[in-house]
Amino acid sequence: MSSNMFSFGSRKFSINRNTGVPKPARRFSIGEPSQNEASSKIHRQFRAAHEGHLPHAGLDATRASTGVVWCTERAAEFGFLDEPDKWANLGQGAPEVDDDIEGSFPRPRTINISEASREYGPTAGIKPLRVAVAKLYNEMHRKGKPSQYTWENVAIVPGGRAGLIRIAAVLNNAYVGFFIPDYTAYNEMLSLFKNFAAIPVPLSHEDGYHIHPDKIAEEIARGTSVILTSNPRNPTGRVVANPELAEIQDLCRERATLVSDEFYSGYNYTSNCDGTTISAAENVIDVDEDDVLIIDGLTKRFRLPGWRVAWIIGPKEFIKAIGSCGSYLDGGTNVPFQEAAIPMLEPELVQKEMVALQRHFRDKRDYVVKRLREMGFIISYVPDSTFYIWLDLEGLPGPISDGLNFFSACLEEKVIVVPGIFFDLNPARRRDLFDSPCHHFVRFSYGPKMDVLKMGCDGIERVINK
C-alpha cells in the first residue's frame, strides 16, 4: 500500500475571500472532482443531499425552525422586525400581557432577588413553588378526593417546550400516539429522541377534530403505550371535557401513559366563563399510580410567556426522573422568577383571574368570528377554548385557497397567520405534506389586544377584496 494513499499532499486549496487564508476546496475530499464526477447528475444529486458534503457538515438546519419561527422569518423579509407596531401578528401563540384586562391582577414590574436565588436552583424546581402548584391543583380539581398531590408530584421546568423535551427523554421504548392537527413544537420533540416511535393519528374535520374515546381504545389495542395531546386543543380551539375525558383516562389507566398539555386550560368558554378550568387532574384516582402527566405553567393563562416558568404534574416516580434529567438537558428554571410566581398561585386569586380571562377572551373571540363570517369565511366550529381559530380557506378564490399562499398574501398587508401545514406533524418525514388535509387551513390567533385584532381583520379583508 502506498504511503501517500491517505495523504493530503495533493489536495488543492482555494482562498477564503474574507480572511485571505487558504481553505479546503471541498469538505472531506482530498482532491478536486474528476470531470466525470463533476458532470454526473447522480453525483451532484448525492452531494446536494448528503450531510458530509453540505457547506456545514455538522449542521441540520431543518431542526432549527418551528412553524411560527419560519413565519416570523418570512415576515421579517417584508419588514416586520423593523416596524412591528405596524403589523398584526396573529401568528404567535401568545396572549396579551399588559394590565388592562378588567378584574385581572396586576403583574409584577419588579422582583426581589434573594441571596439564595443567586445559587443554582434544584433542577426539579424550588420546593415552595412545587408546594404551591400541588395546592392549586388539589383545590381546583381534587377537593374531597382521598389521593392528593404533594410537592413530590410536581417538577418546575423552564417553559413548555423544555417540559416536553424532559418527558420525551425519560420515556421507555414505546409507541407514542399523537394527533393531527396539533401543536407544532411536538414535531421536534417527537423526532429528537430514538427511545420511542411516533405514530400519527389523524382526526376528522367533519366532526370538529374531536378525540373520541373509541379512537383512544384503537390506539391502545394496536400497542400504543404513550398518548400525547394538547387539551384544550391547539390549533383547533376545541376541548375534550368530562365525561369523555374521564372515559379516555379510564381506558388509559394501567395501559398507557397520557401526556396532557393543558397550557390553555384557563381559556375555557364551555361553562359560561365562571372560571372553571379543564384538567385531567380531575379524573385521576391515585396521583402516584395513574400514569397521567399534566403540563402547564405561567405562559398562557397567567399571561407571562417571557418568564419561562412551567410545571409538570404526575406520579412521583415519573417526576423524580423528569426533575433529574434537567441536569443534562436545560439546567433548571430561573430561581428568582420561581420565587416571584408563588403568590400568584393562591387558589382564590387564580379563580378570580380565570373569570376575568375567560370573559375578556370570549369577547375577542366573538368579535373575530363575526368579522370573518362577514368576509365570507365558513366557521363550522366556533372555538370553545384556547384563543385560536382553525380557519378553513377552501371557499376562497384559487390563488389564496391554501395556507401557504394565503399566508403570503397576508404578509403584503402586514398580517401574520400560520399555515395549517405546520400543524400536520410529520416527525419522521415519511409523508408528503402537500397532500395534507391541513393544507387549506391557517391558524388565526386572537391572543393579541383588540386593536391588533381589528388591524389584522382589516388586512385580511383587503386580501379577500383583492
From TrEMBL:
Keyword terms, alphabetized: Aminotransferase, Pyridoxal phosphate, Transferase
Membrane spanning stretches: none
Signal peptide: none
Stored Gene3D superfamilies: Type I PLP-dependent aspartate aminotransferase-like (Major domain)
Record-linked CDD domains: AAT_like (cd00609)
Residue span of region Disordered: 17-43
GO MF terms held by the record: pyridoxal phosphate binding; transaminase activity
Keyword set includes Transcription: no
SUPFAM superfamilies: PLP-dependent transferases
Domain of life: Eukaryota
Domain Aminotransferase class I/classII large: 87-446
BP GO annotations: amino acid metabolic process
UniProt similarity note: Belongs to the class-I pyridoxal-phosphate-dependent aminotransferase family.
PANTHER family: ASPARTATE AMINOTRANSFERASE
Protein name: Pyridoxal phosphate-dependent transferase
Species per Swiss-Prot/TrEMBL record: Diplogelasinospora grovesii
